[in-house]
Fold each of these.
Amino acid sequence: MSTEAIDPRYVDIDQWPTIRAVEVMLEGQMAAIAAIGSQTGRIAQAAEAAALRLGARGRLVYVGAGTSGRIAVQDGVELYPTYNWPQERLIFLMAGGLAALTEAAEGAEDDADAARAEIHAAEIGAQDVVIGVAASGRTPYTLAAIAAAREAGALTIGIANNAGTALLDAADHGLVAETGTEIVAGSTRMKAGTAQKAMLNMLSTAIMLRMGLVYRGRMVNMRISNEKLRLRGQAMVRDIADVDLGTAARALDSVGQDIKQAVLVAMGVAADEAQRLLEAHGQNLPDAMRAVQQGG
């Protein structure tokens, strides 16, 4: 595997001046992002398929071990505050359990039986989307989870840093960023990890876009949890509904700080009707707004 190989260019990096080592690390990070360039079409296809599959009840499931698992969890946990993605629709399967986020779980990545058992226990099914991340593309835990999830009817997405590996073949959608050798051999928290983080960010954000949780570049499904976000929410309602800030604030207060519902209320819709419209249109604000404008 290229991610595990020793690159002769960096054999003496521990003897280099620190500034030179850091400059080479930056080059590696830039190369990692460039490695994603060939995958944009595949990421888009995976996102569109995931959004369709998730619907109103499907769950996003993140699977990984070690560094890859931690990066996957980092992406998933941000969906609740950023897009108010329901926490009950997020599942994290980490080799060795969530305790392995902060402490290494020796041997856990090889436990394929545990992965299959966890997929079964989570009752993964046809409405779910399971994302497996492994730099090597062959981590037994992640590979087994993806295979079991696909067998259960879930949509599966595999993210790896080595081409032609089992994870990419096992998943419905295989995404690969060939980041090559690491400056410190095998340290996939570097180039491979950077590429994984970027691909996951792009994938999950594209899913949220296709599910109508972003409107005109704004996080209209954002969870308002502090004063800064409350003011941001008021500005969103003001701009989208084309009303003054006072009207926007009152609309938000009347619907428990739900931005999408507040937009409809600011447009003159009663609160209960605004909620009904959003439910009827799968929480898609643009579709609900069009229904209001068309009188239905």
Amino acid sequence: MRESAFVKANISKWEEFERQISSKARKDPDRLASLFIQLTDDLAYAKTHYPKSDITVYLNNLSTKVHQYIYKNKKQSSGRFVRFWQVELPEIFWVHRKAFGYSLIIFLLSSIIGAFSAAQDDTFVRLILGDNYVNRTLVNIESGNPLGIYDSMGQTDMFFAITFNNIRVSFMAFAAGILASVGTGFMLFKNGVMLGSFQYFFYQKGLLLTSVLTIWIHGTIEIISIVMAGGAGLIMGNSMLFPGTYSRLESLKKGALTGAKVVLGLVPMFIIAGFLESFVTRLFGMPSALKATIILGSLAFMVYYIIIYPRKLFKNGVYTADRIL
């Protein structure tokens, strides 16, 4: 269909929608819902056939206005916060799964680079982790307590310090996305190199399994959450680089809001990770089977909540991939 014919066939419907949201009169919710469905269908058609047209921009903006109108006037239930973690956050994970996937790839490649560099240069670990940390760990290894650094501070003090630091790192990884995603990429690279060199250091000392069964008790949730925070930064950065039919500023605002929801939603994960590191990781006498159970259980939970559960909601029609976020 020619664009002019498409506009002529639907302009009256769009004008009615404009009147509906502009009028202060009581709205018919069924009529409003019907018009909104038709509008999103028209927007999808326009994006496919006239992607760079002014009419596509118009429909995109109108859809946004309507969506904001509907949710601005929607009564919030007492379970609003529950719904955020139950539906809204998983929806972001699903809709922006590519950004989170890229974040994971950057982090994994950086970890490999860190391990490879440590294998090639004996001074690399000291450069990345610092002489103080390496020297203290070497002393602990000689004394038969290679991961004794985890009980070097009081449990409560350690909990607050570690939790605050992890939340700070996640917000920095997100905020760095404002630098066209490059800043977030650098943060992911830096943390990935640290992890890779750290694990290789223990491998060199013949303590890889010991370190894995200790560090990943808390590290499973912590590292995955940092990767997700990196994904939030990429969402914001990419929204500025690729605004689509929105203005660059409007797209950036939407990307920043979506990313902020992610990092706020990850705060409970960092609290859990901080608790595990402060109160559980230091229990060096814990049976290896129990350690492995905690690690695998944490991994299963994160994979389910970030990947499996959002996909399940999508298949059940709770949300669609094209919904405006």
Amino acid sequence: MIIAQTPFRMSFFGGGTDYEGFYKEHGGAVISTTFDKYCYTTVRHLPRFFDYSNQITYGIIERTKTIDEIQHPAVRNIMKYLDMHELRVVYEADLPARSGLGTSSSFAVGLLNACYALKGKYADKRRLADDAIYVERVLCNEAGGIQDQIAASFGGFNRIDFRDDGYTVKPLVFSTDRKKDLNDRLMLFFTGFSRFSSDIAKNQVKATKDKTAELLEMKALVDEVQKLLVSKADLREFGKLLDYTWKLKRGITSDISNNDIDLLYKKAIDSGATGGKLLGAGGGGFLLFYVEPEYQENVKKALEDLVYVPFEFENEGTRIMYFRPEYFDLESVKEGS
């Protein structure tokens, strides 16, 4: 049995520039962090006592005799990609799926990590990120960027740059006290609305060519924010820039925001938030705000109908929490197929 723990991520700046259609021509960059909310992926071989060969547990329970019958696209494709058979897979998470935190990519990274471990193989963080990108974007044919898989694999507070020939992950190095001050001024709220990010991403891909100027400006903000964080400048500028990048992003397509989200955002700003943004592709999920300590109770009260989620930054990325190797006779499966 293997248990993998994989963090969720929040993307602050540059989201949208990690789409292949954009960064291959213009380059891309994001600033993001993982934080202490996780998904847990348990993988073991299913004992041969049942009239089914695979059991996949997430929002539902799937029991199938063949891999092709598995409805969950990431599970089905990862099992084929890594030549896995007769699995019991269980997915659990601290936060809901389809909420703008890269949950599907965290699951893909965690499942890959667990499957490699079950096979007795080590996969480093870059291998896991690359494989998750390939599974989601190629094998599952899901639209979207590539920052989520990288963030979930590597973990930490990073600047990620995207080029035609690959990507680089650079931890942002600034003082522990300054990082804590930033963490203490960020407030996360669940709006209760969820949509498949891939659906929104398809429209964003279509809009990319018409919104190149906005995306280039969002990319340029990454340099500005990096300088801000490593300097002694007032952190309130971080909040102001969040507000600015949110206004840029919501202008890319009409799917990114809606009247309900705009109203919630205005309530927070009117109550003292300096700035904020909706996390992820858009359409619902989590709202993140920068709020000075003296205004935080006001913002909580204004958004009292939403779930407030305290959090702390984390640095580990995906990891194997529990490892108990199992013998599995793959050849007998292939001979019987």
